[in-house]
Amino acid sequence: MRIVSANLNGIRSAANKGFFDWLPALAADVICLQELKAQDADLTELMQQPHGMKGFFHCAEKKGYSGVGIYARREPDQVIEGLGIVDIDVEGRYLRADFGNLTVISLYLPSGSSSEERQQIKFSFMERFYPHLQELIVQGRDIVLCGDWNIAHKEIDLKNWKGNLKNSGFLPEERAWITQVFDELGWVDVWRTLYPEAPGYTWWSNRGQAYAKDVGWRIDYQIATKALATKAKSGSIYKEVKFSDHAPLIVDYDYPF
C-alpha cells in the first residue's frame, strides 16, 4: 500500500506544474492533499477524480485559502469532513476516510508565522486537537494522519535550527506538544522511525536559495498508530519536479488495500 502526503500550495497551481501528469506513474493507493486554495466549484473533472481515483474534499469557506483532500483507488466506507469544531472546520483542515479497519486522515495544521494572532490560533488548534488524537488511538483502528503539521520536531528536522528557536514552527511549546503526541499518546513518526539519521526536509522557504541549497524543514508527516507504523517498509520525498514549496512524502506499507 502506497500512501502519499502532498501540500500543493494551490491545487490549480500544482496542476499547471504537472502534478496530475505525475500521478499515474506514482501508482499510489491513497493521496492526501493539503492547501487546496480552491472551492469545490473550482475543481475540474481531472482534479476531482484523477486517473480513475475517487476524490474527496474539505474546502475552506474563505476563497483561495487552506483546504484538504483525499484521493483513493477505491471507494471509502465512510468519509468524515471536519472535526465538528466550527472555527476550525470553516478553514478546511481535516478530512478522514475509512477503508475497513484502515483510517487515512488528511490534516493541515495552522501556521503561526504570519502574525501573533495566527500563532495563538495555532496553539488553540493544538490544544483542542490533542484530545481528538487521544480518542483516535483508543478506537483500535489502523490510522495514519498525513499532512502539513507546520512543526519541525527536533534539530535534525530543519537545517537552520539555531536561527529558528524563536520562530513559529520550531517554538519550544510546539515541539513539546508534538513530543507528547508521540511519547504520551503513542503515535509514531513514520519517517523518523524508518530513517533516524536522514533529515527528510519537505518544505523550503521561497527566500534566498533555500531550495537549491536544501535549507529546508521537515513539517510534512505521516504519523501512524503503532501497529500500522510497523508495516512501513520505505519512504521517499519526491523532488524531481517542484509542484509546490513542499515536496510529496511517499511511504510504502506492507498492508493490504
Structural class: alpha+beta
Largest beta sheet: what is the strand line-up? 3-4-2-1-14-13
User: Cα distance, first to last residue?
Assistant: 6 Å
How are helices and strands ordered from N to C?
Answer: EHHEHEEEHEEHEHEHEEEHEE
Mean pLDDT: 97
Rg from Cα:
17 Å
Give an account of the 3D structure.
- There is one protein chain.
- Helix content is 26%, strand content 26%.
- The protein has 8 helices and 14 strands.
- The strands form 3 sheets. Strands 3-4-2-1-14-13 form a 6-stranded mixed sheet.
- The chain is an alpha+beta fold.
- The mean pLDDT is 97.
- A hairpin with a 2-residue loop joins strand 6 (94-99) and strand 7.
Please tag this protein with its features:
8 helices; 257 residues; alpha+beta; single chain; globular; six-stranded mixed beta sheet; 26% helix
Q: Which secondary structure elements does this structure contain, and how are they paired or packed?
A:
Layout: E1 2-7, H1 11-16, H2 19-26, E2 30-34, H3 45-48, E3 54-58, E4 68-72, E5 78-81, H4 86-89, E6 94-99, E7 102-108, H5 116-138, E8 142-148, H6 172-183, E9 188-189, H7 190-194, E10 203-204, E11 216-217, E12 220-224, H8 226-229, E13 232-237, E14 249-253
Parallel strand pairs: 1-2, 7-8
Antiparallel strand pairs: 1-14, 2-4, 3-4, 5-6, 6-7, 8-12, 9-12, 10-11, 13-14
